[in-house]
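Appendix B. Raw example, untouched.
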Amino acid sequence: MKRYTGVSAGLIAVWMTCVLSLTASANSSWHWISSTRPYDLLPIVIAVTLTVETFAIARLAKVQPFSKVFCMVLLANSVSFAVPYIGNHTPYTFVQALEHVPMYTVGAAYLVVTLLAEMPVVYLTLRKCTDRPKHLLWVTLGANAITTALTALAERLFCHGSW
């Protein structure tokens, strides 16, 4: 084993450089190339998200009444949207942050935050409205994963930026 430590260390270093590399911006400014920004997509994304999640929970998890499902999905999405900005002490307003922050809004971390914020709200308020509460949990998880993936796809298709 000791015979290959140098080779192993070298291979691990090369692998980590490729996998964990970060790009330095060298004090250059990020700007969006496309005329569409992530916040321009918000109204459409909100409508699609509320529709998909409400219908999935109402139809697939068989939760009624529909109006209660819609209200709880709306509340849960409002909570999940607000969570990343609670305690945000940057000098930017929401629109300024989206304009100048060099990243897309939705990604894997966003899905985790969404699930942690939305799942308790939806599950705890709607579990007694269905005879299959465990199914409600899985449907909510799946609907959130689908809507997050659709939002991420929309951002990457319509919003382009550069350093």
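End of appendix B.
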